[in-house]
């Protein structure tokens, strides 16, 4: 385990040793991966959207039993029980609250009052300006190369527009997997990088080994962005199931969508009223249609089938384009050590060009 080689506004803000974030991936970012990242000096983020409130508390307690280092929890800002989940973070002294959507100003204020760093994920400069004006401490910006829900603008163009728009620390995500990427992001002016697929493909990740091997066999052109899974652009590995979904009609997808929605209701412990409230929140926050909201409820079970159960015939596998340049399964410590060491070397080399 290496000592701190690179200090940024982000490391100062969060108390982590290295400016590397393991992003909050549903069904993937559990206690083992998060604590592995934290113990290696990065910021591990626990994914809570697929957990009940009780499961989230249990997961936080487990992470704290595995590490004494700072870590974060990713929350759905539009969830009906978001205030209750934030209370768990406060009660257990979690260091960072990250959000997939912009949290309300009053929620940001409550978290900050208790010393919790608030870091929403954003996809446009205007969104960064909005959350910064509400008091967010940092933002994570993901370019189109990233896995899961993503936008059309690549990181190399999106990142500088966000850096020009706000003066809070910016973490760059989408397309990062090694020390050269961290050095490049820091040269742009970012305060750190976020990596998802790269951390999914570590020995500390609980994704089944057979599924990891499937990822390792893929090339740079083996991902696809589709809206057929949950109605929103979603980057994932191209599989037979994804190809089938891409070519299917809405009517043909209806029956399995209803079935998986019922399974999500059972697994999450949510009532029909709770699902309806979350649906209305999605509609307000994201402008989704009724059909898209039905698909959104269906998505967690498709991701679980692939990433937890290892059933790629019934599940989907979220992935960034970096899957095409990853060929090994290090531990979190091995990964972070080599990323930071290489970044420091690259920054020294670049500095030598200055006269």
Could you name the CATH homologous superfamily of the largest domain? Aldolase class I
Overall number of domains: 2
Counting DSSP E segments of at least 2 residues, the number of strands comes to: 11
Share of helical residues? 40-55%
The average pLDDT value, as a whole number, equals 90
Q: Provide the CATH top-level class of the largest domain.
A: Alpha Beta
Low-confidence stretches: none
Radius of gyration: 19 Å
What is the first-to-last residue Cα distance? 34 Å
H/E order of the elements?
HEHEHEHEHEHEEHEHEHHEEHHHHH
Strand content: 5-15%
Overall structural class, as computed from helix and strand content, comes to: alpha/beta
CATH topology of the largest domain: TIM Barrel
Largest sheet: 8 strands, parallel, barrel
The strand order across the widest sheet is: 1-2-3-4-5-6-8-9
CATH architecture of the largest domain: Alpha-Beta Barrel
Dominant shape? globular
Tally of contiguous helical segments: 15
Keywords: Flavoprotein, FMN, Monooxygenase, Oxidoreductase
Pfam families: NMO
Organism: Nocardioides agri
GO molecular function: nitronate monooxygenase activity
Outline the structure in words.
This protein is an alpha/beta fold and 355 residues long. The protein folds into two domains: 9-208 and 327-351, TIM Barrel (Alpha-Beta Barrel); 219-307, no CATH class. 48% of the residues lie in helices and 12% in strands. It has 15 helices and eleven strands. The strands form two sheets. It has an eight-stranded parallel barrel, surrounded by six helices. Strands 7-11-10 form a three-stranded antiparallel sheet, with no helix packed on it. Helix 6 links the parallel strand 5 and strand 6 (139-142). Helix 2 packs parallel to helix 3 (53-66), helix 3 packs parallel to helix 4 (82-92) and helix 6 (125-133) packs parallel to helix 7. The two termini are 34 Å apart. The model has no long low-confidence stretch (mean pLDDT 90). Keywords: Flavoprotein, FMN, Monooxygenase, Oxidoreductase. GO terms for molecular function: nitronate monooxygenase activity. This is Nitronate monooxygenase.
